[in-house]
Amino acid sequence: MNPLEERIIEEGIVLPGDILKVDKFINHMIDPELFVKLADEFYERFKNKEIDKILTLEVSGIGIAFACGLKFKKPVLFAKKTVSKTLGSDVYTSQVYSFTKKINYDIMVAKEFLQKGERVLIIDDFLANGKAIEGLVDLCNQAGAKVQGIGILIEKDFQPGGKKIREEGFQLESLAIIEKFENGKVVFKESIS
Amino acid sequence: MNPLEERIIEEGIVLPGDILKVDKFINHMIDPELFVKLADEFYERFKNKEIDKILTLEVSGIGIAFACGLKFKKPVLFAKKTVSKTLGSDVYTSQVYSFTKKINYDIMVAKEFLQKGERVLIIDDFLANGKAIEGLVDLCNQAGAKVQGIGILIEKDFQPGGKKIREEGFQLESLAIIEKFENGKVVFKESIS
């Protein structure tokens, strides 16, 4: 098992509804040194691609995207879910459906920060139905930026997002792929390292 | 001028209503290498204090708090503004008034992640009226945790938050202190390094 899988086994909690609670090291409290190791692993998997910028989505993608920005020595752009006085109106917008909350919400990036021809690595914490990732890809398409790869911490293999994104031809790398939950335990699809 | 002040002069934009737009390197796009330098500066200022945990508030505090977590080699806890299925109900809650949005909102941390006796360094991006910082201090007080210091990227000296927090006896360190905005330009209170 790799360090992320080990930590999930040690500290992840399976909640009803196939929800994996990883609040202790990803979604509420963050272990920065773990994230640096995981960014190193993303670097190994994407080092043959030219990357100009890391793109993620607020809130819980920011920590791992920051660690990747450090490793790749590139700026980190986080798409926003709410308008603000500083964001302005000159933005690309994509609508994302949340299966968890059963609502549509908009994600936005300022046009000035996502340029035509830029080579983007998308990073996020979870991949399940893939709607947030599709929204980030859509923002890149609107800008004429090129998605060079997609890096995910935890993918739920029993939900359709990963398969769809791979079929579209993207290099999708997930550091922990969950095949199923069984009796409150996590079963990984395969050991990665 | 220190690296943060230099960057504010180069890339910050003063908007009507005394709003400083730093979306290019703090609030929307992040420069990870700048944040590492700023975390080094926070470390210099707080290295005599015992720190067990970095506490910040989602969203835009997460990047700099992460950089501090790396430098101090401690976990980063970010207070949440919205409830979620994984957060649960066993939380400390504090109400914060937003002068920008003219609304009250709740900030929350899970009780299991903020323990009695823990020594906390609070980190955030902006300090103006100080309501968010007061909320974070309140969460620590509820938990019986001890606030060892407060580190801020940009403080607006012409708004009352900083003075009040210093009068309460906290070690408050702001890396860029803005005295005023004048003809669309930023005037710093003093050069720090």
Automatic annotation (TrEMBL), chains A, B:
<protein>
    <submittedName>
        <fullName>Xanthine phosphoribosyltransferase</fullName>
        <ecNumber>2.4.2.22</ecNumber>
    </submittedName>
</protein>
<keyword id="KW-0328">Glycosyltransferase</keyword>
<keyword id="KW-0808">Transferase</keyword>
